[in-house]
Amino acid sequence: MNKLKISLLFILFSTFLFSQEEAELNTKGIEFAKKGKINEAFELFDKAIKTNPNFPNAYSNRGNVYRMRKEYDLAIKDYSKSIELNPENLGVIYSRANVYLEKEEFKNAIIDYTTIINKEPSYKTIYFDRAYANIRLENYEIAKKDLESQIKINPKDFKSLANLININTKLELYEEAKLDYEKILNDFPRQENLHILYNNRASLYIETNELEKALEDVNKSIKLKRKYSMGILNRGNIYLKLGNTKKACKDFKKAIELGVLKEDHFKADEDFEKLKTNCEK
Fold first, then answer.
1. Cα(198)–Cα(219) distance, rounded to whole angstroms?
2. Residue 67 CB partners (closer than 8 Å, separation 6+)
């Protein structure tokens, strides 16, 4: 699953009334932040807090700057103070949850995501976010339910559909996974990572011993991206299972040349070792 991109919302208004001075400092800080002048923005948010230590917006905005600097503990501290002063601001709770996620404190992230779900179940991609945290904790059954909830809210949510397939495969719910693949391939025929989907479905067909279907899908994958090393390696694995060692080794060597060993999702599993043993004789 891809890393989350930071999307920060600097807060201008609030349900509270504050003096003109701290409000102006906060506004100017936001203007600097939008221009990429983060240090200047930080100074203004900091000054706003010193002017009024009970101004929640300045805490959350300073927390955003800390987050951008990857000073996560300080970001959490500021978000928590902002939430203490204004518990109804779901945006700040969401920001704190995402920082917990970045820190890999998945249980704390789940607590915050759950708080938001209890107050506003349709908030952004909240079920997906909680599902992702549970996936990282290997709570696959719980994650599956959350992804299904997210898809009910937005049936065209590609991320949720793709991750639901992975979970159903992990749980060995292969028939469900096959149906999910049909849906996602029909709904997203021009998706930029279509080659990955076909390669992943090929891997599913390997699990169910449908090798001809696996070969058909992996060929579609490689046709979409000719130098896709993971797909080429997977095809080599399929050829070996089909008894075609010559083609298997040709793909194995090509995948190695293309740098498959350095791919983020590469794993030297039992099938890879068999392929390696047969092709490095």
1. 9
2. 6, 8, 75, 95, 99, 102
- How many residues are recorded in the chain? 281
pTM of the model: 0.82
**How is 132-160 classified by DSSP, letter by letter?**
HHHHHTT-HHHHHHHHHHHHHH-TT-HHH
Cα–Cα distance measured from residue 251 to residue 238, given in angstroms and rounded to the nearest whole number: 10
Mean pLDDT of the chain: 92
Confidence of residue 254 (pLDDT cuts 50, 70, 90): very high
- Please name which of 170, 158, 168 lies closest in space to residue 196, comparing C-alpha atoms: 158
Going by pLDDT thresholds of 50, 70 and 90, the confidence category of residue 9 is low
Q: From residue 151, how far is each of 21, 125, 161, 196, 239 by CA, in Å?
A: 45, 10, 7, 21, 36
DSSP annotation of 108 reads H
